[in-house]
């Protein structure tokens, strides 16, 4: 059972991270069960709401905390050390609110209402972009999801995959194109409780099994005109907000740093407890094991420096036009380091590391999911190469 929270510190108070650590420890007690059953951790989000941690990226003017990048990284990392699936849903919720706050391309009344709902209740949102035919939109192409304009609003019809957090989401930000003679593309705010919205339970994944990343089916869902968020014609080039891109890469890096740290912590405890009869002492006393743990420490230290130095630069306003690519570089390095850190633990202890009774096996499956998130490794390296070679096409 999640702890009852009588006093809730704000993001700027010194004891907020102590509270987050307490929640993460509680989430860790149920993480294996949710992973095994592929069940959604609703109780974790009740606890996060009680702690006022769902509103960290909601602007202060609407009752949120408007937390900075460093604070968000720390919260995500610690929650991920307890339950990676909970942290991923939370990260996506943070990202959508942060993105909306930066662009302000929503109808002002709709945006303020959503913000205030997110402060007072368990009201989460996430984007719905990937489709069966198209795959990830990061690779190009147009959505098959159609928005038809009517006198009453927009009729949305389509099929989305990998909708992280679908069991608890109150709103979906759906990427679609219009059926106009000259199509426009953009996002549409679709409330969960509108007629025609259906969740098809398809999520059966190697890792992040408790995220409820099911398929979203939309069948002539009628939404108000003002729920269209950022419509633009196909030949219109929209300059991406570099800080929006940076946030996604940095916060995902922090998440998988949390997973790798949890794996390291378990490994250290295991090496102290494990005393083979022929050794007469714990595995922690052997130089080979000490060296391997040292390699893990080096990888995690590098991640910590990479993630938080850039987050601090952003918070201090000390960044340049390449901040998005820099954050993507951090993601490339930090997630690869996180995977390698967990792999070293597996190589070190053999079969116990792959036993389902031990959390290292779950941490490994979860950390591998870092390779899936946009931007993926090849896209990051391509962008880095073009930048170094000064190729703009």
From TrEMBL:
InterPro entries: Acyl-CoA_DH_C (IPR013107), Acyl-CoA_Oxase/DH_mid-dom (IPR006091), Acyl-CoA_Oxase/DH_mid-dom_sf (IPR046373), AcylCo_DH-like_C (IPR036250), AcylCoA_DH/ox_N (IPR013786), AcylCoA_DH/ox_N_sf (IPR037069), AcylCoA_DH/oxidase_NM_dom_sf (IPR009100)
Key words of the record: Flavoprotein, Oxidoreductase
CDD domains, alphabetized: ACAD
Gene3D superfamilies per UniProt: Acyl-CoA dehydrogenase/oxidase, N-terminal domain (1.10.540.10), Butyryl-CoA Dehydrogenase, subunit A, domain 2 (2.40.110.10), Butyryl-CoA Dehydrogenase, subunit A, domain 3 (1.20.140.10)
Acyl-CoA dehydrogenase/oxidase N-terminal domain segment(s): 25-93
Pfam families on file: Acyl-CoA_dh_2, Acyl-CoA_dh_M, Acyl-CoA_dh_N
Domain Acyl-CoA oxidase/dehydrogenase middle: 131-221
Iron listed as a keyword: no
Domain Acyl-CoA dehydrogenase C-terminal per the UniProt entry, residue ranges: 250-374
Protein name: Acyl-CoA/acyl-ACP dehydrogenase
Organism: Anabaena subtropica FACHB-260
């Amino acid at each position: 059972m999640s702890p009852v929270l009588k006093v809730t510190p704000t993001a700027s108070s010194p004891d907020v991270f102590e509270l987050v650590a307490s929640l993460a420890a509680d989430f860790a007690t149920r993480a294996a069960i949710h992973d095994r059953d592929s069940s959604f951790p609703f109780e974790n989000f009740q606890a996060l709401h009680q702690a006022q941690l769902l509103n960290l990226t909601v602007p202060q003017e609407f009752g949120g905390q408007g937390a900075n990048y460093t604070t968000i990284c720390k919260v995500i990392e610690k929650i991920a050390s307890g339950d990676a699936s909970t942290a991923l849903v939370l990260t996506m919720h943070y990202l959508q609110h942060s993105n909306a706050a930066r662009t302000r391309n929503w109808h002002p009344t709709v945006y303020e209402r959503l913000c205030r709902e997110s402060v007072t209740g368990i009201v989460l949102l996430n984007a719905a972009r990937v489709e069966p035919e198209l795959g990830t939109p990061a690779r190009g192409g147009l959505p098959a999801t159609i928005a038809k304009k009517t006198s009453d609003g927009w009729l949305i019809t389509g099929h989305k995959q990998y909708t992280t957090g679908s069991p608890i989401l109150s709103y979906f930000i759906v990427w679609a194109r219009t059926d106009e003679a000259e199509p426009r593309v953009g996002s549409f705010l679709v409330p969960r409780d509108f007629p025609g919205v259906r969740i098809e339970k398809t999520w059966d994944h190697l890792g992040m099994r408790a995220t409820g990343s099911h398929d979203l089916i939309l069948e002539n869902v009628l939404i108000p005109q003002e729920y269209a968020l950022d419509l633009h014609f196909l030949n219109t080039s929209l300059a991406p907000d570099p800080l929006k891109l940076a946030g996604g890469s940095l916060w995902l890096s922090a998440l998988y740093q949390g997973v790798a740290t949890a794996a390291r912590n378990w490994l250290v405890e295991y090496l102290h407890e494990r005393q083979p009869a022929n050794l007469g002492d714990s595995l922690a006393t052997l130089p080979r094991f000490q060296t391997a743990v040292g390699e893990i420490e080096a990888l995690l230290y590098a991640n910590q420096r990479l993630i938080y130095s850039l987050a601090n630069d952003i918070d201090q306003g000390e960044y340049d036009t390449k901040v998005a690519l820099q954050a993507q570089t951090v993601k490339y390095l930090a997630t690869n380091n996180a995977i390698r850190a967990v792999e070293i633990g597996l190589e070190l202890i053999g079969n116990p590391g792959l036993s389902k009774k031990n959390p290292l096996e779950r941490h490994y499956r979860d950390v591998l999911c870092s390779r899936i998130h946009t931007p993926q490794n090849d896209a990051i390296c391509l962008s880095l190469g073009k930048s170094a070679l000064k190729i703009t096409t």
